[in-house]
Structure formats: structure tokens, C-alpha cells
Design a protein that fits this description.
Layout: E1 6-11, H1 15-26, E2 30-36, H2 40-47, E3 54-55, H3 59-64, E4 70-73, H4 80-90, E5 94-97, H5 104-117, E6 121-124, H6 131-141, E7 148-157, H7 169-172, H8 180-196, E8 199-208, E9 214-223, E10 226-234, E11 241-248, E12 251-256, E13 260-263, E14 266-267, H9 274-285, H10 296-311
Parallel strand pairs: 1-2, 1-4, 2-3, 4-5, 5-6, 7-10
Antiparallel strand pairs: 7-11, 8-9, 9-10, 11-12, 12-13, 13-14
Helix pairs in contact: 4-5, 5-10, 6-8, 8-10
Length: 312
């Protein structure tokens, strides 16, 4: 029996909002109802290829719209807390872009408020539903590598912000909200927490000029039974080079280029996890516990890890 699509609204029509809007239009479980952005020009540009999607009058109107079952929050991080408070006031489920916020206390307060309200909310860490990332976790947690000897995260960027992020460079290039640690390393912190459990930051070396986002970061995270070494920098010619590798006494497994798994002499094909993320969102809205998306508790733990390094 076919399901009635969920009415979804998009809050924020920057890079991520436009990408998700396009993906939502292709997904059978969702119908995009409305969108809003404080930049009227950006909003109209995003709606031009989306016939039938109306422009909301305000963020409040978006959440109060009776046709909206769920809101995708794609605003810059500084606006996430206000949007989640609107969700709580309206009783509307939401999928919020990461990072949850750029403040530990605020992230944990939002976590607690959403939990107390029983509101279905998740944070968009694509590794949560990624086939390759979940296979890596399965290999490690099932003991296929034997005793874990080491784990490493390596990130390289030719420039920051990256070329395709030029439209958001006003906040991505600054230390208050931006930087590759919040934007990119947070994904790998999420994955490390899912694979190895809770962590504490044991060591940090941070390089950045006054008033600018970081240019290099080295760190060590302590999880139960394993330490994760982090080496990230704006250096080299490749625009986006990343690798998460786990080495055990019986072999190794690595996630590279966001979606390729290296294991046992084989490298998987690249896959887009966005449709799987939307499958998970539909499951969350249906109350199914196996939705697999990142919870606000997981997102708050990522904020604590990331911000503790940036304070270092």
C-alpha cells in the first residue's frame, strides 16, 4: 500500500538547502511544501526550479504551516538553536544540518529540551546512513580486525572555504562559526563516536591567524581501548581529500573520499547517502527505532569534542 508523502519545508536556501531541496523532489516519501530564507534573492533562485513550492513569509510561518509535517533546517550554525526552538514551540519534527550549534552548553540544552518534549528530531550526519561507513563500523565492532592497534583521520584541503562553498564564505572563513574542524572534521568525529564510543580530547595543536579559521589541526582522542590520531590541514592541491583508517592485528579498513570503503584488497564504488538519509527521516517520522539517523545526543557529543579542540 503506497504511503502518503510527508510535507516538508526547507529553512535556508544556501548551498545545502538547494542540494537537499533537489534530493527531496526526487524522493517518493516527501513532498516539498514551502521554503524560507532571509535573503529574498537566494530564496527565489532556489524556488525557480521547484514548481509548486511556495515561499513562506517567515521562519515562524514555515513552522506554523499546517501542510508542513517536518522541517529541514539548513541555515548557518548560529541560527540552528533559534530554529530548533521554533520546532519545539510548534511541535514540528525536524532534520537539522550539522553542527548542531557552535556552543557546548547550548547544544546540550537543545538536546535535553528535544528529549523532554519527545519531538522526533535528528541531525544530518550522512555517515549515519552511509553504506561504507556502516560497513566499517560493522567490521570493527564484530572483531574482524582483531585487537585494534590504531586509528587515524587525515583531512587535506587546497583552500578554505572550498571553491564550491564561495557563497557561504562570509561565515565559513571565520573562527566564530566556520573552519574545516566544524564543517568537515565533525563528520569524522561523529563516525569515531559511533565506532568506538565516548571520547575525550587528550591533545591538540591548532594553527590559525587572528580573526581567521584554522589552517591546521593535530589532535588525539581517547576512546575506550583505542586512540584516534587526527591530522588536518589546508595544504596541497586536492580540493577535498579525506581518510578514516582503522588498523587491527589482523588487518585494516578505511573510509576514503567520503564514501569508498577499502578492505581486504577491495575498494567499493562511490555512493550517495542522501536518499538513504531521507529513507531514515521517513522512518523517524513513522516512529521506527531503526531510522539510524544521528540523534541530538550524538550531535551534542560531537559539539563537545569539536569545540574543546577549537578552544585549545
Amino acid at each position: 500500500m503506497p504511503h502518503t508523502p510527508f510535507g516538508i519545508a526547507v529553512l535556508g536556501t544556501g548551498i545545502m538547502g538547494r542540494r537537499m531541496l533537489a534530493a527531496l523532489q526526487q524522493h517518493p516519501r516527501f513532498r516539498v511544501v514551502a521554503a524560507w530564507d532571509p535573503d529574498a534573492t537566494a530564496l527565489q533562485a532556489a524556488l525557480a526550479p521547484a514548481p509548486g513550492v511556495r515561499a513562506a513569509a517567515s521562519a515562524e510561518a514555515l513552522f506554523d504551516d499546517a501542510a508542513v509535517d517536518v522541517v529541514y533546517i539548513a541555515s548557518p550554525p548560529a541560527a540552528h538553536a533559534a530554529a530548533l526552538r521554533l520546532a519545539l514551540r510548534a511541535g514540528k519534527p525536524c532534520l537539522c544540518e550539522k553542527p548542531l550549534t557552535h556552543g557546548v552548553a547550548e547544544a546540550e540544552a537543545l538536546r535535553d529540551a528535544v528529549l523532554a518534549a519527545g519531538l522526533p528530531c535528528a541531525v544530518n550526519f550522512p555517515f549515519a546512513r552511509s553504506v561504507a561507513a556502516n560497513r566499517l563500523r560493522e567490521i570493527v565492532q564484530r572483531g574482524e580486525l582483531g585487537r585494534i592497534e590504531s586509528a587515524h583521520i587525515r583531512l587535506r584541503f587546497a583552500r578554505w572555504p572550498r571553491e564550491w562553498q564561495a557563497g557561504a564564505s562570509a561565515w565559513l572563513a571565520g573562527p566564530a562559526e566556520g573552519g574545516f574542524t566544524r564543517e568537515v572534521l565533525s563528520h569524522f568525529a561523529f563516525l569515531a563516536l559511533r565506532v568506538f564510543g565516548p571520547a575525550e580530547v587528550a591533545e591538540v595543536e591548532l594553527q590559525r591567524a587572528p580573526g581567521a579559521a584554522e589552517t591546521a589541526l593535530r589532535a588525539r582522542w581517547r576512546h575506550a581501548g583505542v586512540e584516534v590520531q587526527v591530522d588536518a590541514a589546508v595544504a596541497g592541491e586536492r580540493a577535498d581529500d579525506n581518510r578514516f583508517e582503522v588498523v587491527g592485528e589482523r588487518g585494516r579498513v578505511a573510509l576514503k573520499g567520503w564514501s569508498q570503503l577499502e578492505h581486504d584488497g577491495h575498494t567499493s564504488e562511490r555512493t550517495d547517502s542522501t536518499p538513504l538519509t531521507l529513507d531514515g527521516l521517513a522512518a523517524l517520522l513513522e516512529g521506527r527505532p531503526e531510522h539510524g539517523l544521528a540523534t541530538l545526543a550524538e550531535a551534542a557529543a560531537v559539539v563537545r569534542c569539536i569545540e574543546s579542540m577549537l578552544r585549545g
